[in-house]
Amino acid sequence: xxxxxxxxxxxxxxxxxxxxxxAAASLFAxxxxxxxxxxxxxxxxxxxxxxxxxxxxxxxAIARLDEEIVRQVEGLAEEGAQVAxxxxxxxxxxxxxxxxxxWAGILKLAEDQDAAVIVxxxxxxxxxxxxxxxxxxxxxxxxxxxxxxxxxx
Length: 153
Prior knowledge:
The protein has a single domain, classed as Rossmann fold (3-Layer(aba) Sandwich). It is 50% helix and 22% strand. It has helices spanning 15-27, 42-45, 55-86, 102-113, 127-133, 136-143, and strands at residues 7-10, 32-40, 90-98, 117-122, 148-152. The protein is globular and about 50 Å long. It starts with 6 loop residues before the first strand and ends with a strand.
């Protein structure tokens, strides 16, 4: 693992994400950590004109909601970087809003940051719950070309 590449940690403020920070602190002491948060764009879920409003009005409302999501995701990444710093890591925040799967946003940030490893927490979903709700950690593991460490919550 090249020492000049950061470790990317997916953060959503869950217990699993906090456990991942603790694991990263013990396994990757001295390495730079990029704390990444990913949000999903409202415009994908609620296209303009579907909300029972004229398309222009709905489009403006959706744009404002997307701006709020960006602020929230950036704040979450900053919070995670502070939690990581308190655990003794050198950390910085990275955030993005995607129109697709959250795992794809994590992989995009890992690519953008040239991460050596991706660390994700697991919420422990399995079986039917995982099929119905999806699993970010499973998506990252299944689609990543980089090493992935999944930390149980």
